[in-house]
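Both lines are quoted verbatim for reference:

——
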Amino acid sequence: MSPASRTEPRWGRRVLLTLGALLLALVYGVSTASVESSLGPHEARYDVTTDGTVTIDLGPLGTLRIASPLPLTLGVRVTVQEIPASVTQLGQAKTLEALSGDLQSYLQFFSGPQATVQDVARALVLDAAVRTLLAFAGLVGAWWLVRLLVGRVRWQELHDRAEPHLRASFVATALVLVGALVLTSSEGGDKPIASHTASAVFDGTPLEGAEVTGRLGGVIDTYGSQVISQLRMNEEFYAKANTSLEAAWDVRQAKIDQRAEVRPAPAASSSGPSSGPSSEPSSGPSLGPSPESSLGPSPAPSGQATEGADQIDEEDLLTVVLISDLHCNVGMAPLISTLVKRSGADLVLDAGDTTLNGTSVEQYCVTTFARAIPKDVELVTSPGNHDSRETSKRYARAGATVLDGSVVSVDGLRVLGDRDPNETRVGAGGTALASKESADHEAARLARTACGDHDGVDLLLIHTPTVGDDTLARGCSPAQISGHLHRRYGPERTGRGVRYISSSTAGATLGQPTVGPLHGVAEMTVLRWDRTSRRFVDYQVVEVRPDTTASVSPRTRWPSVTVGPAVPGSPFGRTPV
C-alpha cells in the first residue's frame, strides 16, 4: 500500500471524528444556552429548551406559553426573577394591586419589544457558541487523556478493532442525537398544562392563543386589557404624529426648494416650547434660574431665516439631528428615524438622559433608539444624570459612540463630551455624584482638553449646560449643545461661544411622565455645519404636539462667534479673541 493510500483513510477518520465531536459539542452548547436579561420591567433568565415553546414562568403566579419561532423544535423558558415568593400568601386582589404599578413599564416594553428579542437572541447565540467551543475543547482533551492513560500499544489495538465500524458509529451517533432531540421535544410539547386558558385579551396580537396557568390568568384578564388598550392607543398616537411630521417636513422643504425666504427671526426672549399649531420657530427664553441649574442670562441671537438666501455649497454641509432627554419614550423612535431620513442627516447627537433610571431592564430603550438610526448615520451621545455606565455600555453595543472625555471626529466635526458628573435615581435617594469628580472639576477638565487640542474642538456636547461654562468662557469651542432642562434656550452667545439647550424629545417638562402619548411638546433640532468654516450655519426646530400635529421651523441663522486659531504651546491652545 502506498503512503498516499494510507494517508487518505487517516485524514478521513480525523475529519469524521472532528465532525462527530463538533456535533456533540453543538448539541450541548445550543441546548444549554442561558443568559440574564430583562422582560419589560423585570430581570429574567432565558434558557434554551427543546419543547418547541416559549414559556414565561412567573413563579407562583403561573406561566404563559406560546409556540416558539425558533427552528428545530427549540424553545425558550423565561424565568422572571423579581416576583417574590411571598406573593403566594396574597389574595388575587392584593396580587393584582401589587403588580398594577408595572403597567406603564410594560407599555414601554411592548412599544419596542424587538430590541429585547434581538438582544436576547444575540446573547443566546453568543452563549451557545462559547459553550460549544468549551465542550469541543473538553472532548478533545478527554480524547488525548484517555489515549495517554491507555498507552500507545493498547490504543492501537482498540483503534484497529474500531476502524471498520467508524463510519457506521458516526451515523448511528448522529441518528441517536437527532432522535433524542425529537423525542425530548415531543414529550415536552405533549405535557398537559393544568387549568390552562387562552385569554381573549390577546386576540389580534402576536400572543393570540397563548395558554395561561394559575393566578396569572386573573392578572392578565384584569390588567392585560389595560396594557393592550394603552399599547394600541400609543401606536395610533405615534403613527398619526409620524404622518404629521412627514407632512410638515415636506411642506417646509417645498418652501425651501421653491423660493428664498428671508425675514427676521423672532426674539430669543419669548417663551419656551410653543404649544400652538404655528410652524414658525419659537426660540426659548434667556437662561435664568431653573429647578436643576442656575445659568446667567446671555445676549439673544440676531439671526435671520436663511432659506435659499445664502450661497452655500451643500456638499460642504454636515446635517445633524439633535435629540435629548428621551427618558425611555420609545414611541418617539419611529419619528426620530423619519426626521433623520427626511433631513438626509449624516449625524445624530443625543444630549443624554436616554433612560429613566439607568437600570439594566432599560437596555431595550437604548437599543430601540440606536436601531432607529439608519446604519449609515453616526450616533454620538453624552450620557445624562438619568443614564448609567451599564445602559451606556448597551448603547455602545447597539452602535452609539459614547463620549468619554476625549475628542471624537465624525465626518470632520470634532466633538468633545463626557458623561454627566451626577447620577439621579428616582426613588433611591435622588441625585448624587457619579464618581469622585464634581461638576466644577469636570468642567475644568473638559476646558483643559478643549483648549489643549491643537486640531481644535468644534462642538462641546455635554448634558448639563453649566459643565460647559469654562470651555465657552475661554473660547476653546465655538459651540456647545446640551439638554437636561427640558426647555429650549438659545442658541445664544455665551462667553466666547454659542450655547444651545435642547428641550425634551420625550415631550415632558421636569417632573412629567414620559410614557405613552405625549404630555407636552416633543422637540428635535436639525442643524447644518459647514466643513470649510467649521461653524454651524443654521438650525430648524421640529415640534410634535400632544394633539399629534407637527411643525418644522424655517432655517434660522446660527449666531456668529469668533474663536482664535489653535496655537501650539499656548496655555489654552488658542490665541485671545
